[in-house]
Each structure stands twice: as structure tokens, then as C-alpha cells.
TrEMBL record, chain B:
Keywords of this entry: Aminotransferase, Iron, Iron-sulfur, Metal-binding, Pyridoxal phosphate, Transferase
Single annotated GO MF: transaminase activity
The Aminotransferase class V domain, residue ranges: 4-348
Organism: Nocardioides marmoriginsengisoli
Superkingdom per UniProt: Bacteria
Protein's UniProt name: Aminotransferase class V-fold PLP-dependent enzyme
Family stated for the protein in its record: Belongs to the class-V pyridoxal-phosphate-dependent aminotransferase family. NifS/IscS subfamily.
Keyword Nucleotide-binding found: no
InterPro entries reported in the protein's UniProt record: Aminotrans_V_dom, Cysteine_dSase, PyrdxlP-dep_Trfase, PyrdxlP-dep_Trfase_major, PyrdxlP-dep_Trfase_small
Listed cofactors: pyridoxal 5'-phosphate
SUPFAM superfamilies xrefs: PLP-dependent transferases (SSF53383)
Catalysed reactions, semicolon-separated: (sulfur carrier)-H + L-cysteine = (sulfur carrier)-SH + L-alanine
Pfam families cross-referenced by the UniProt entry: Aminotran_5
């Protein structure tokens, strides 16, 4: 499935990728998906933790062509 | 005047240690192995330190070795048990939330042909293991140094020989049952820095993994810091004697903090709220930069630690928080001391909402 929104957070240090995720959650409809591409290792923990704390769904990770992980989030509310 | 809330990194010297240190510096300078009067004095002081330490911990004096640090004691404990059981196997299993010194010992073991695996933990940070039998040596801390969660060491020790890192808990909690080797660090209970304890149970198979030395204590390397060891022992005795009262008071302060920070929106308070170390708590604020919050709190007179990546020399987030699935950025570890008061905690609780809100506002939220 293609995401509704891709956020390029390459080169950003945490918490910046999480802040971008929070700012853009409203840009996708409920049920829609955002992918956050982040090379900061902290994002691997912090995207799922954000989903738990904000009651959104963490779908999983898929790597971009350049190997940078993309963290998939589905908007639930 | 700074409010010091980082005792888990280093506790101020206990008054009992200060007195012992001054006295022992004067009389404990000689090499305890020599056959003259000053050496005998040093030997007596060292033996006293060993006996007092053993008594405070409820173990035998010949199970106590003084090392130059807690980290070195961990390395000796982990690797020495592995070497002692080399004929049985070479698999070190360690909880994923062990102190970095255990992880470094595991990597050293692995680099020399051994096997090293980590065991997952639950959301409270408690290790989960159902196949501990396959371990040659199991490394499980007595209680976690970042989130405070107490580990089921005695249960696990029924399945494999256990090394327990007691650096965060020694003096505060009794040693758990069942360990084969353990480590502790004096500056975490109010003794001087530069004194660690390696504890090896009578009958445990342990071999020195390093070159060794010719000391009175065969596990020791280099001349002991006699005065430091005596000061550490004096502090440990005092702390153990006071701990029922200290623990109750500190646990109540931490309960107050845990309850108070939940008033700040989007805060992740982690670790077991009940079965934990009495003196520390870890929490993380969403969207907050760890370095920014530690710096701002420092400016306002609070000394606290953080496990966030931006505050670590490695730029890696805390592996403890990562293993627990906790938020790693915006992290603070607050640890109270013997003299911390309710007023200290309340001032921190009063400052935090404004500090957190300010950093979030600067981030554009």
C-alpha cells in the first residue's frame, strides 16, 4: 500500500523526526498512513513509543532505496 | 545552590567515610604484604575493611576483593566465571538492560571466540527468560541502574550460574540469593570513587581472566587503596544500618515525583512503580530534547542525568530504554540522596512544567 504522506527526516536528530511526525499527523485522514524516513537510530525506539503514547498504530519498518529506515504509522484518531 | 538529584551516578561522600578516610590515610600507606610495622598496620586496616564489608553484605570476608572500580569488578566477575566454566561452554547470556560494563565484557568475550546474547525485557524492564539453562553464565543485575526495576536473580540462579551487577543496589537492597559472583561500586553508596567490590561465592568456579598479581588476595591486582577500602566499608556499614529509614523516605520522595510528573502532558514514566530501587526514577517528555532540558534544569539549579542520545558521548540512545520500548528522547533520570527533602522534589516538580512547555514551544509545538 502506498502511504498518504512521506516525511523525509534524514539528517535530523531525535526528537526532531518525532516532532515532524506529530506536526503532520493531521495531514492524513483517519486510517491514512505516514512513513517517516529517519537515519537517527533513536527513531527506531521513539516512533513506536510515540504511537503507544498518542494511541496511533505503529505498522512497522520498511527501508528506502538508500537503506534509510522508513517507520510506518497509521492514524487512528 | 544546586539541588543534587543525580546520586545514582555518584553519591556524595558519607560522613562516616570522610572520618575513616582521614584516619586511614595517615596509617594505611604501607604495602600490606611487607613484614614491618607500617605494613602490619596497613594489613590490619585492609583486613578490617574486608571484614566490615562482608558483614554489611552478609557474606564471608574471603568472598570480598577490592578493585579499582565497579566497572573493573564487573569485568572480573563476568569473565572470571566464564573462564571458570570454560569446559562446560562459552555462552554468556545477559539481560538487555545490563550496565554498559557488562555489555563491554560480553563484547570482549565474543571478540575472543565466546558467544554472547542478550535476553529481552518486558515493558517494566524486567528480564524474561525461559531457557536460562543453556547459559554457561547468566549476567543479571540486582536492580536496574536507570529505571530501578528489581530483577528475579534468585529464580534465575536456579537454572544457571549467575553474575549479578549490584552496583546500583548495594547498600540499599540486600544481595539476592543464589549468585556466584557479584560486583559493587563504593561511590554509589557514599564511599569514595576508585573502590569497587568483586564478590565471588565460596565454592564458585572462578578463574582470573586477566594476568593477575601476587597480592594477599589472589583476585586482586595491584596494591589496594587501603584508606579508600576502609572508607568504603565505613560508609557501607552506616548506609546498611540506616537503610530501613532511608529507603522508606526515598521511596516516598520518588512516589511523589512519579505522581507529580504525570500532570505534564505526554510524559512516559518507566520502570516498576513498586518493586524497584528506592532512590531513582526515569521519565521522558515527548518532543523534548534531552540536552536542552538537562541544561535548562542545570541553569535553574537542578543536577539531573539523562539517557537520551544527545546527552551521551556515543550519540546512541539508552539501550535500557530501547529494550523496554520506552521513549528515549527527552529523558531524565532523577535520583535522590540521603539529604534530599520533599521541598527539593516539590521545587523540581514546580519547575518542570514550565521548562518542558518552553522547550516544546521552541520546537514549534
Amino acid at each position: 500500500m502506498n502511504p498518504d504522506l512521506e516525511l523525509d527526516c534524514r539528517g535530523m536528530l531525535c526528537p526532531r523526526p518525532i516532532i515532524e511526525l506529530a506536526r503532520h499527523l493531521g495531514d492524513v485522514p483517519v486510517g491514512g498512513e505516514i512513513v517517516v524516513y529517519a537515519d537517527d537510530v533513536a527513531a527506531a525506539s521513539d516512533v513506536p513509543a510515540w504511537c503507544r503514547m498518542r494511541a496511533q498504530e505503529y505498522v512497522g519498518v520498511q527501508n528506502a532505496d538508500d537503506g534509510v529506515p522508513g517507520y510506518r504509522v497509521r492514524r487512528l484518531s | 545552590m544546586t539541588t543534587y538529584l543525580d546520586t545514582a551516578s555518584g553519591e556524595p561522600l558519607h560522613p562516616a567515610a570522610r572520618a575513616a578516610l582521614e584516619q586511614a590515610r595517615e596509617h594505611g600507606y604501607a604495602d600490606p604484604r611487607r613484614l614491618h610495622g607500617p605494613a602490619r598496620n596497613a594489613r590490619i586496616l585492609l583486613d578490617n575493611a574486608r571484614e566490615a564489608t562482608a558483614e554489611a553484605l552478609g557474606i564471608r570476608a574471603d568472598e570480598v576483593t577490592f578493585t579499582p572500580s565497579g566497572t573493573h569488578a564487573v569485568h572480573l566477575g563476568v569473565l572470571g566465571l566464564l573462564l571458570g566454566r570454560a569446559r562446560q561452554g562459552n555462552l554468556l547470556l545477559a539481560s538487555a538492560v545490563e550496565h554498559a560494563s557488562v555489555m563491554h565484557a560480553g563484547q570482549w568475550h565474543q571478540a575472543r571466540g565466546g558467544a554472547f546474547e542478550t535476553l529481552p525485557v518486558d515493558a517494566l524492564g524486567r528480564v524474561r527468560v525461559d531457557d536460562a539453562e543453556r547459559a554457561t553464565v547468566l549476567a543479571v543485575q540486582t536492580a536496574n541502574h536507570e529505571v530501578g526495576t528489581v530483577q528475579p536473580v534468585a529464580d534465575l540462579a536456579q537454572h544457571a550460574p549467575v553474575f549479578t551487577d549490584a552496583c546500583a543496589s548495594a547498600g540499599r537492597l540486600p544481595l539476592p540469593e543464589g549468585w556466584s559472583a557479584a560486583a559493587a561500586s563504593a561511590h554509589k553508596w557514599g564511599g569514595p570513587a576508585g573502590v569497587g567490590l568483586l564478590l565471588v561465592r565460596k565454592g564458585a568456579r572462578w578463574r582470573n581472566p586477566f594476568p593477575g598479581d601476587d597480592r594477599v588476595d589472589e583476585r586482586a591486582t595491584g596494591m589496594e587503596d587501603v584508606a579508600g577500602a576502609l572508607a568504603a566499608a565505613a560508609a557501607l556499614q552506616a548506609v546498611v544500618a540506616e537503610r530501613e529509614e532511608t529507603n522508606a523516605r526515598q521511596a516516598a520522595l520518588i512516589d511523589r515525583l512519579r505522581a507529580g510528573v504525570t500532570a505534564i502532558p505526554d510524559t512516559d514514566v518507566v520502570g516498576d512503580p513498586v518493586d524497584r530501587l528506592p532512590h531513582l526514577v526515569t521519565f521522558s517528555f515527548l518532543y523534548v530534547d534531552g540536552e536542552a532540558i538537562v541544561t535548562e534544569l542545570d541553569r535553574r539549579g537542578f543536577a539531573v542525568a539523562s539517557g537520551s542520545a544527545c546527552t551521551a558521548s556515543t550519540l546512541e540512545p539508552s539501550h535500557v530504554l530501547t529494550a523496554m520500548g520506552a521513549l528515549t528522547h527527552g529523558n531524565l533520570r532523577v535520583s535522590v540522596g540521603r539529604e534530599s527533602t520533599e521541598a527539593d522534589v516539590d521545587r523540581l516538580l514546580a519547575a518542570l512544567p514550565e521548562v518542558v512547555a518552553g522547550i516544546r514551544r521552541d520546537a514549534g509545538l
